Amino acid sequence: MDVDNVRLQELNNLLKTLKVNDQVEPHTLIISIDLGTSYSGIGYILSTEPDRVHILDQWPGHTVVKVKSPKVPTVIKYGTGGCGFSWGHQVGLRDEKKLEAFKLLLDPSLPTPEYAQINKVRKNFQEFIKTPINAVDDFMGALYRYAIEEIAEKHPDEFSVIRAMKFVISTPAGWPVTAKNAILKAARDAGASPITHIQEAEAAAFFNMRSKEAKALKLKSQIGDTIMICDAGGATINLTTYTIKRLVPLQVVETVPPLIKEDPNKLSAKAGGSLNLNKNFENHIKSFHYIETLNRFDQEIKPAFSNSSTGNFEVKLEGTKLTDYPDGNLKDNTMSLDRYG
């Protein structure tokens, strides 16, 4: 099961937990927003269908056609001088001006993943005259507005009689107070109120104790039981331990805070996660094709060169999709070299 699906299931279970504990009142809408480091998601419950959790799975893209995905990339790009912005799937994957992993820049003690090229992100912030807090505010606001618009469009009859809305916001376990408060403030400033705050690892604990797998194995939780949660996300990894304090409604308490393997006394998350795997694979592919192209130049083109050679030599650049550049002798991913370079 991939990381995104696990996080969505945690979101589902958290919403159901709130429904069981608080009892969804008539004409109420509960919205849960997960502002992740790499990807974000939204789930919601309508009081007319209290046992059904809905997930937003379509997002704004480059065109009027929406992108179908259970998650939206947590990236944002501002216009010239910081005016206006595009977000999520609207931002190109290879856009050099995009701002990513900005959630980790809310506090200097937070780890930063290698894939994010944080120095470049910081430079882009300066160019846009923006701060990480600005990015969190704008992205959270975009999530909030889009959630309201989509829910109103998908459920016009139910939405028209909504009298109350509740919001659930999750943050990583062991996060600095400054970073956590910045996210909660961004949600409130966007219009989300009242807010129930929960740690992501705590939501994972609820999910696992009530999962189909736990029921299939007949695992019955008891007061005093202790469980350890490994939150292996897209950008960070941490371990948190909880002990069950109450069963109905379910309540857990943190007994061992998030720890880093290399430094058990440091309460923080380790920079890692699945997106670093993407970066490592990308580097491997680049290295592979670089060596392949260099070998072809060394073993085929150089030996074929002589004073009597005529015409140009062509080098196929494998594993790339480059824009044609006639003045630079580049076409169809092939570089043409004349006798004089």
TrEMBL record:
Alphabetical list of InterPro entries matching this protein: ATPase_NBD, Heat_shock_70_CS
Keywords: Stress response
Protein's UniProt keywords contain Transit peptide: no
Superkingdom as given in the UniProt entry: Eukaryota
CDD domains: ASKHA_NBD_HSP70 (cd10170)
UniProt protein name: Putative Heat shock 70 kDa protein 12A
Organism the protein comes from: Glarea lozoyensis (strain ATCC 74030 / MF5533)
